[in-house]
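notes to self, project folder thing:

trying the whole complex as one job this time. last attempt i did each chain seperately and stitching them together was a nightmare. two parts in total, labels are on each line so i dont mix them up again. if this works i'll redo the older ones the same way
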Amino acid sequence: DVQLVESGGGLVHPGGSLRLSCAASGFTLSNYWMSWVRQAPGKGLEWVANIKQDGSEKYYVDSVKGRFNISRDHAKNSVFLQMNSLRVEDTAVYYCARDYGGNPAYYYGMDVWGQGTTVTVSS
Amino acid sequence: DIQMTQSPSTLSASVGDRVTITCRASQSISRWLAWYQQRPGKAPKLLIYKASSLASGVPSRFSGSGSGTEFTLTITSLQPDDFATYYCQQYNSYSLWTFGQGTKVEIK
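result (full assembly):
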């Protein structure tokens, strides 16, 4: 089965750090862009970041630029989101998703999603 | 940045109804739009990409249309499983995505 499993969420104080992981199975991770999408409690979806197949391109929503870093490790079949200088407003469920970034003509949507991991930033 | 606006925010309907959700972009995005369904407590599920292409395994009662700045998602004959929140997503900007704020379809 094609699957994504996130981990690493938890409770952290403002200004702290967390590293989220997303483990892929059932498909070749190196063939796909990957994204992180978050959802604050009771709110809508917000795309956070994505990364190209070879890691050479990374893109971020403005609100996390300079604080978050997306990376990938194909040997571990995983994608990561390093989150630093966390703020209360970063509190959300974080999903990883298989993506197709880049040229929109070859984009097929975020077609595989994990179950999400919860990040709570609070003092 | 491209802004996506969905309407209505909430829609009340009955099983068997035909429902239509609209998504408007702040600038032309050609046909680079996807739709997702999210049930409470679950991850989003891809329904449609490229404005009107049905994702694998999605029932044919779901359809999408539009181009430029105005798009619609239509569900013909609403089923109990379809009561959920629906989001549009633009992908016109190279690898910089934005979602609409969501439309909740609730039971009348």
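what i see at first glance: The interface with chain B takes residues 33, 35, 37, 44-47, 50, 52, 57, 59, 61-62, 95, 97, 101-104, 107-111, 113-116 of chain A (CB under 8 Å).
need to look closer tmrw
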